[in-house]
Please model this.
Amino acid sequence: MKGEILKMLSRAEGYTSGEHISEQLGISRTGVWKHIQSLREEGYTIVSVRKKGYRLEHSGTGFSAHAVSSKLRTEGIHIEHHEKIPSTQTRAQRLAQGGARGWTVVTADEQTGGRGRRGRPWSTKKGTALAASIILRLDKLPQEAAAITPTAAVIINDVLQRYGVDTRIKWPNDILAEGRKVCGILTEMHAEMDELHYLIIGIGVNVNETDFPEEIKPTAVSLRHLTGQEWDRSALLAALLDELKKRLPEFEENGFTPFREDWLRYSTVINKEITIHQRHQSWKGRAVDIREDGRLIVETETGQKEVISGDISI
Ligand code: BT5
Model:
């Protein structure tokens, strides 16, 4: 109910009368007032004026389950928001193990142990970053699921471009702008040989950061830095979730194929001489294509190689 009230207020141009809310939602005027009080306690600034009604002050920075839910256009997404948590990814794993349904999304305003691939740290400072982990239960085989990373990258890249940011995809899981990392994606899965139980897509976006920890300063960038304006994280997350919800059924049906052309167009590595850094070795080649299963095809002096994992420098 609170979410419904928030939705009405955030869509309204000016004031919305208590009477109107009570009629629309079929609750008493006192009920409306109680929900408004509770929203205020959660940190929303809601102005009330006699004979006019209620108006939501848009702070632009509020990030909460209600703020995201009220901006979603798609049904069936459940948000669990935390002010501070070690990692949304770990929390989502636990929820999925406990049977949480697909499209349960864990978000946080601050992560104290955010992680990237192979245990690397992911910095998520309080009040500025977007961190979300989405539980997906897809009708796919485990070996087909790996291509969700480049698929999600295409969808996220599309949303950011729609906001006017000139982003590119760097294999396997980075979104770059001006050559620096604005978003990282971490896909984890729980599966048996022939059965995928669930996937968790972790998305970290640098949104309103004006500064970064020393070690990532040269390689990280935020949307605020790129556009010169403060972003509404809940609106951005709602847009990302809506687009993923809309387009992932296409992945479930036809795999990476429908996204491949866009990926090739957005890629920073295709037709470039690259160095691939893997656990025990680094080697050079020319990236020429991406396979339907997300593997990168690299031409070397000794022939073509398929790369499943690693990091690339250009
Ligand atoms: C990634 O790993 O890029 C995946 C990041 C996924 C983060 C999300 S946030 C929500 C969810 N919860 C989590 O705990 N994780 C997910 P990788 O490709 O391994 O990159 C990690 C490297 O990126 C680090 O070693 C740093 O060099 C760099 N890095 C760390 N924080 C960064 C940031 N905020 N912006 C840009 N680069 C960063």
The chain has ten helices and 14 strands. The domain at 65-266 is CATH 3.30.930.10 (BirA Bifunctional Protein; domain 2).
